[in-house]
Amino acid sequence: MQINSIIRYFIITILIIFMLGGIAMASPIPAEIKSVVAFIFVKNEEGELIANGTGFFVGVKNPSSSNSFSVYLVTAKHVLYKPNTTDFLDMVFVRLNKKEGGSQIGVIPIITEGEKRNVFTHSDSSVDIAIIPFLPNQEKFDFKFLPEDMITTKEAFKELKIREGSDVFFTGLFTPYTGSERNYPIVRFGRVALVTDEKIEWQGKLMDLYLIEAGSYGGNSGSPVFFYLGSDREPGSIVIGSPILKLAGVMQGTFLDAHEIKVVETKEVPIAVSSMGIAAVVPGYKLHEILFSDELKGKRGF
Fold it and tell me: Which pTM was predicted?
């Protein structure tokens, strides 16, 4: 009886450790996940290429073929804008890692109208997502794409029981270190901070967003954000099995807070802007709605 009590105590203790361990107990992310990311560059006024944001690849399977996909580059819409405007650039530059080593930069024209249009956005202009049909040479470049079943629809979101405290991470460009020879995406971890049925105000507009407790940095815009659901994904219980990995959405940016700075012997009041440690994510179901819009289904034929 005493031995059984010790065993029961040991099991209960282990379960409590797993329940309370949170992100410290989480498994490392799959190494391949960083291969879905590409770095997006633009030209500055001097004609120099500067890192501007992150893109990632998703694929929609042709139901009539087992190995045929339409592949798209996804990013935040504002990554494709001219500085301080909502006008699209004429072109952007995408850097991809090569299988043989090193990397290569290619140009993508930005065409938003006409028969050659290659940039597609949501019918709701407040949705900060843009997608471009783009399939790099699979023999030359070291990249992967996310299948459509990894994208959370509204229905899937409810089934996954996502709530405040659920683990998330994102991977993308870190402008202080872009890598000189190859892309080296940074990975940052956090938790869901707020899920709401109401729209959230962002830069003067009401938008559908998730908020996550994770610091976003310049260049992270457009990064894929993932739900990483472990053994505690069922409220009040422990689930045995591998973590569930789903695309939560697209990184829009960080929330900033403005503080007055008092200056001696002057009437001016400068403003300091600091990160609140909260980032905004455009929900994955908004990406799903673009990918399966009538327009894109018509263009790819399925």
Answer: 0.85
